[in-house]
Every structure is written in structure tokens, then in C-alpha cells.
Amino acid sequence: MSGDALSLTGPDAGPSPREETLLVLGGGMCGLTAAVEAAECGLRVHLVDPAPRLGGRVARMASYFPKFCPPACGLELLLARALCQPRLAVHLSRRLAAHALRDARHELTICPVDAPAGDATDAVARLCGDAIIVATGWQPYPLERLAQRGACHPLCLSNVELEERLAADSPGGGELLRPDTGEPPQRMAFVQCAGSRDAGHLPYCSAVCCAATLKHCRLLLERYPALRIDVYYMDVRTPGRLFLLRERLAPYEAAGRLRFLPARPPRAVPHADGLSLPTERTDSGEHLALVYDLVVWATGMPPSLAPHVAGRDLALPLLHLDERGFAADSPKHGIFAAGCARRPMNVSESARSGAAAVMRALAFLQTRRTSAVPLPAGEARGDRHA
């Protein structure tokens, strides 16, 4: 599902005067879930996303966890529901240029992603809606900001880069090779909390990185029988069912192919045989300087509002943002945050968050309808049920 703009509505795309409309910003798993659920509840829905296709980052993943099934398992079903939904219109390769609140309705101006801010051309469109769901997702914390730790070396890659390389439809066909030799890695290291829980970078835990690393370890150890992996961590956070990932790795730990080393995030130093990671174990004080073919940095998940808006100024001034850039509901104005725009979360949590945002939007619209209904003459609102 791709193209500059895509409408999934039929010929009756224009909403009737009384028909309520929901505007969804973001076409990843969260935004797409919200759009489909809202349309199936009877709302007219406009979904806007700067990407040329739906699915967000999930569409580029290698597998889900903890079941290790391909992303197509859930995404294809969701796309099928979207395709047969006449109330849903999708605007791809578009971003928000302006927002206005007129007569209690939101008016969004959207433009092509490559259009200059303020460009008034025929490609600019205006959408009106009664409520907005912000599902703008997340972006990887850039490795360039960890350059002082050696993370920009050619033998380094981020957890997101690894995920995309392991996908079967990636340019490399899912193979992971050392770039200088073209051979599969024999020794790999994962550095956890790379830029997270750090006052100089992201001061919060990104919630998903530990489970993602455990998933990557299992995928790699199964695919490359000669591979050994060390995971450098401060603590492993895998709540609920995610702890099953650690249990499934126990045979590899017993065989000596996987080790968990409690340590502060080390610094990568070039070595004749690859990269050395000098650091100190936090449990024993032992100094380490092991050498690896590849080093994966588990970078954090900051929110990703900027790609969805045009220009440097925030195009959605009524949206509440905290000091870290995460969005919160603005229920007074009918704006609801969902998914990783709200906080770091995994795919299933994002989908549930999108559905929950629809419920809050429906409650907002119901309250507004109720308050707008005039009472019979002589009947006070306070004693209707007396």
C-alpha cells in the first residue's frame, strides 16, 4: 500500500454535516489500529502519514517477540480491514502544515513531505475533524550522538539497523556479515542502555530495548551456530511474558555461547581483530577488554513528532508535550495521544494504546453531543433523574 496519496473511501467521501470525523496522525501499527477501529465504530476517519506506505517501523522488522512470527502476521490483517473500510481515507507522503480550531472543530492543513513550509499549492489540502489522535511514533536515538563512545565505527550498528538487516526482505536477504571481511561474525557484543538512562542523552528507560536484544540474540544464535554473544547491561528489564525470552535463551547460556555481563556501557576501541570494549564488571570489579567482530548498541526511543509536521514550529499548538517531548491528552480540545508518541512501548502495547485512544475520543464526542442537546422547557439539567 503505497503512493503519494491514497483514498480508501468510496465516491461518497464527503462527510455529511452531522457526521463526526476523526483525524489520525501516524500510519504505523498504533495509528492504523486507531483508524480502523474508529471507522468500524462509525466515524469518518482521515489518516495522515509522511511515509509512502502504511505500517511504520513494524513493516521493516524481522519478527515480533515473544512469538518470533513475522510482522506480516498482524499487519496484513490490519491492512485488509483498512482496505474494505469505506469510511477511512489515507493520505500518504503528507505531513501537517497548520492547525486551527474553528467552531469546536479541528482544521488541519496538510502538504507533501517535500513541500516548503507555508507553500500554498494545489497539493495542499485541508481536513476537518471533531477529534484528533496523535500516533506519530518514535525514532531511533542517533548513533552519531554516541560518537565519543566509538559507536560510529564501521563495525558498530544500532539495534534498529540490526533488526532491519535481519528481515528476510532486506537488501542483504536477512544475512548479517562483517563489512570489512564479508564473513559472518564469530563474536558479537550488545551494549544496553546506549544513550538511555543517561542525563547527557535520554534520561529515561526506553522499555523495549532489553526484550529486543534478547530476541536478537535468539535469532542470531539460531542462524549462526559458531556465533558467541556477550550482552553488557546495567539490569535486564523484561516484565510479564517478556521474561520468557530470557528462559528460552538458557540453553545457549549453558553452552557458553551467550553471556550476560553486568557493566556500565563501555567505549568501543579499534583493535587489529575488530573492536575492543574496555569496561569493568559492576558485580566483581573485574576489568574486561574483550574483542568483537560486531558491536550492537541498544539505543533508546525518543518520540518522533518532527517528521509529521512542516517547518520548525510545532504545527499542533494545542498538543501537550512533557519536558521529554512525549505527548499527553488534551481532552478539553479533543486531542488524544497514543502509542510511542505517549511513551516507549512495544508493538502490541502500541496497538492497544491506539484502540484505547479511540475509546477516549468516542467518550469525548458522546459528552459533547450530550451537552449540546437542549433540555425540554422548564427542565433543569441537575434534576433530570430526580
Automatic annotation (TrEMBL):
InterPro entries hit by this protein: FAD/NAD-bd_sf (IPR036188), HdrA-like (IPR039650)
Superkingdom of the organism of origin: Bacteria
GO molecular function terms attached to this record: 4 iron, 4 sulfur cluster binding; metal ion binding; oxidoreductase activity
Entry keyword 4Fe-4S: yes
Pfam (any one): FAD_oxidored
Keyword set, alphabetical order: 4Fe-4S, Iron, Iron-sulfur, Metal-binding, Oxidoreductase
Ribonucleoprotein found in the keyword field: no
Entry-linked PANTHER family: COB--COM HETERODISULFIDE REDUCTASE IRON-SULFUR SUBUNIT A, FERREDOXIN:COB-COM HETERODISULFIDE REDUCTASE SUBUNIT A
Annotated protein name in UniProt: NAD(P)-binding protein
